[in-house]
Design brief:
By secondary structure, the protein is an alpha+beta fold. It is 66% helix and 8% strand. The chain has nine helices and four strands, in the order αααααααβββαβα. The protein has a four-stranded antiparallel beta sheet, with no helix packed on it. The longest helix has 43 residues. It is elongated and about 80 Å long.
Length: 316
């Protein structure tokens, strides 16, 4: 390893070491806790049922979820904030610190052009971001999987799970890195670039979370007459449910009570022939993940292209 690649490794090796030790510690902790959790499930013969109305709520099950849900959420929180940390502490200094201190001139006097200098540094950082975020996302999913979508959660649509697992978490890490790098080049100062990176990841994540239910049309679960409604199970309820007229028109729930003879009488009086409930089934997890992955990768690519164009235009 020589030239720009050696310099990139030398300047980023401390961050790489910290990330490696952190991932090793998380892996050891998750392995221990998951092994302990599976042993508890076997020892108490716990039935794994999906959904808050799954009908397997025993004292042992409640203890299982109580002992593991919060630690899983804690690890998921680390996975969720990881893109912001990557952007602030890896992306922002990548160029911003070099420009602020003027040390980039030393590298460029060694016969390395700005684009090659950038490619070596950014490429190594991107590789580390992908590997680290993949490991974190996999650890969260692996630990969560035995109790996934069970009773009081966590569920696949919870922010702790959706934002911390799957390809979207990895794409968000690349976006954070690209945002921090672009901010460092634009501001030529490390601290402002760190703030911009943190804000960029937070704003994009909040925006995607807000519009997530609108990416896919919900599935309408229709039950005729007085037939009991299909249990919600592990689906993500939209909160849209009510009654259906013979014409197919939908009306809200305020007109009739929920069950019993009063419901039957009310449905007859209003001419309702069925009930409906709109949900996002758990199978929507992957389509939603790939939609957000494409958006985040698109943003990361756009910022990287802009960074390259700025480097060419300004020659650093």
């Amino acid at each position: 390893m020589r030239g720009a690649h050696w310099l990139a490794w030398r300047q980023q090796r401390t961050l790489i070491l910290v990330a490696t030790l952190t991932l090793l510690a998380c892996s050891a902790y998750v392995w221990f806790r998951r092994t302990e959790m599976l042993a508890f499930i076997d020892d108490h013969h716990i039935t794994i049922c999906k959904g808050w109305n799954g009908g397997c709520g025993t004292q042992a099950t409640e203890r299982l979820l109580r002992d593991n849900s919060d630690p899983i959420r804690a690890l998921a929180t680390l996975s969720m904030v990881f893109p912001a940390l990557i952007g602030a502490f890896w992306g922002a200094p990548l160029i911003g610190r070099e420009l602020e201190n003027g040390t980039f001139r030393l590298a460029l006097t060694q016969g390395v052009d700005p684009l090659r200098w950038f490619a070596a540094r950014f490429g190594l950082a991107a590789l580390c971001a992908v590997v680290s975020s993949t490991v974190l996302a996999a650890l969260v999913a692996w630990w969560w999987s035995p109790i996934a979508n069970m009773l009081d959660g966590p569920y696949w649509y919870d922010g702790y799970i959706f934002n911390a697992t799957g390809p979207a978490a990895i794409a968000c890490a690349l976006f954070g890195l690209a945002a921090g790098t672009a901010a460092g080049l634009l501001t030529r100062r490390m601290l402002p670039a760190m703030g911009i990176a943190l804000a960029s990841v937070a704003v994009v994540r909040l925006a995607l979370t807000f519009v997530r239910p609108d990416w896919l049309s919900p599935t309408a679960r229709v039950t005729p007459g007085m037939v009991p409604k299909i249990p919600v199970g592990s689906a993500w309820s939209t909160g849209q449910f009510g009654y259906i007229k013979p014409s197919g028109a939908e009306e809200g729930i305020m007109n009739c009570p929920y069950s019993g003879a009063e419901l039957k009488q009310c449905m007859a009086e209003h001419g309702y022939v069925a009930r409906f409930h709109k949900v996002h089934p758990s199978s929507d997890f992957w389509p939603l993940q790939w939609i957000e992955t494409a958006i985040l990768l698109g943003l990361a690519l756009a910022l990287t292209v802009l960074t390259i164009r700025w480097l060419r235009a300004r020659h650093v």
